User: Which sequence fits this backbone?
């Protein structure tokens, strides 16, 4: 598919088929993604790609730890949400839960759904991404472009992904299982595989604000 088609059809998939993905395919996706720009070509990304028993071992360890008070080593969200971000956050949450038949106040069901993150939503491949903690915000910005490339490259090959910040709070368990050195911060995880077309949660298509809502256009003659 074209780059435009890959970007436009990319979604965060939350239910995958068990169909294996060859290592060569995963490696090719990461090679392509690594063409992302980075300041002075530092290439600050590092990954741990897992499949089969290795992927399952990490998920089992995370469930066994059951550390619900775990915190990430960095702050992903603001301490207090405000508009328009609060409304967007609430909408995607309730749209997803609505597809799954989870009503407001059904906390236990919400927690069970969230726990599926730790299983990479059933994907055959899970990737944990880290960054050297000595690097600064510019490298984190570069990292975002790399992660975006991973999702688009995968989509271009007919695969689907789900970037998952949910792994970051469990960095201690992840570090122990994968042997990640102390100088690396767990940025996120990512599920990779084939979407399950029968899963209702995979019908979710989130809204996007059009460019005219977030960008000021100057220098063009208005019709």
Assistant:
């Amino acid at each position: 598919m074209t780059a435009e088609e890959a970007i436009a059809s990319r979604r965060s998939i939350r239910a995958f088929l068990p169909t294996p993905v060859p290592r060569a395919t995963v490696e090719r996706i990461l090679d392509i993604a690594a063409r992302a720009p980075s300041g002075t070509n530092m290439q600050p990304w590092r990954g741990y790609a897992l499949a089969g028993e290795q992927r399952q071992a990490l998920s089992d360890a995370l469930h066994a730890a059951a550390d619900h008070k775990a915190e990430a080593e960095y702050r992903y969200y603001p301490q207090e949400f405000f508009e328009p971000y609060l409304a967007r956050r609430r909408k995607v949450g309730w749209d997803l839960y609505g597809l799954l038949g989870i009503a407001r106040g059904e906390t236990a069901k919400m927690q069970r759904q969230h726990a599926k993150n730790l299983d990479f939503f059933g994907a055959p491949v899970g990737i944990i991404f880290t960054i050297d903690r000595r690097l600064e915000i510019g490298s984190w910005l570069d990292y975002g472009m790399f992660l975006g490339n991973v999702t688009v490259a995968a989509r271009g090959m007919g695969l689907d992904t789900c970037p998952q910040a949910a792994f970051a709070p469990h960095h201690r368990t992840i570090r122990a299982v994968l042997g990640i050195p102390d100088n690396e911060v767990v940025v996120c995880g990512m599920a990779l595989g084939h979407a399950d077309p029968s899963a209702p949660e995979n019908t979710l298509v989130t809204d996007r604000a059009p460019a005219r809502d977030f960008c000021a256009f100057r220098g063009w003659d208005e019709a």
In short: The longest helix spans residues 137-156. DSSP finds eight helices and four strands in the chain. The mean pLDDT is 96.
